[in-house]
Design a protein that fits this description.
By secondary structure, this protein is of the alpha+beta class. Helices cover 20% and strands 37% of the residues.
Length: 200
Amino acid sequence: MKLNLRTFLILFAAISFLATACKKEEEENNSNNTDQNGGDDVELVFGCMVDTACNFNPLANQENESCDYSCYGCTDETAFNYNPDASIDDGSCVYAGQIMIDTWNVDADCFFGAISEVTLEEGDNEGDLVIDFGIFTLNATVNNQGLINIPSQDVSFAEFSLVTISGSGELLQNEQTAIVTITASALLVLNETCTLTLTL
């Protein structure tokens, strides 16, 4: 009888030990499953969950409205609005020559004061411009950075039979304004520098 009781106690202890071990393993498995299935015990990872954003976080499971789209922009270095910080081209590239082809309002307080607008037309080559003042035209160029060059050229207007005009300027980053400084000279009669503000 003693032997049977001892055997019984040993078996009971072994079964209890195995049951406890199995229960512990099951709890660990349940805990792992809960973590993988997004249960209450999952550690929150905050971040941008929009996969088209520059700072998309594939590990985030909680959106925190931090999405940033600043990596989008013009990535063509020859474009006027080239963005060196952009890594994804968004199709927004524009070129100075294209922007300048338009009719611009003119503000000047000099011999061009009577001219209220000028029309810029495309020249023979990319970046070439023809500036039509209505009473005469000037040939000019604009480069990818928006720098305008008006080489020295002779024109006739008003009471002057021959005036030599040259100048330079810049298309501003807002793409709506250009500042052009023009020097006009006629032998012993005229020598004047004028700044024109062109606006769309």
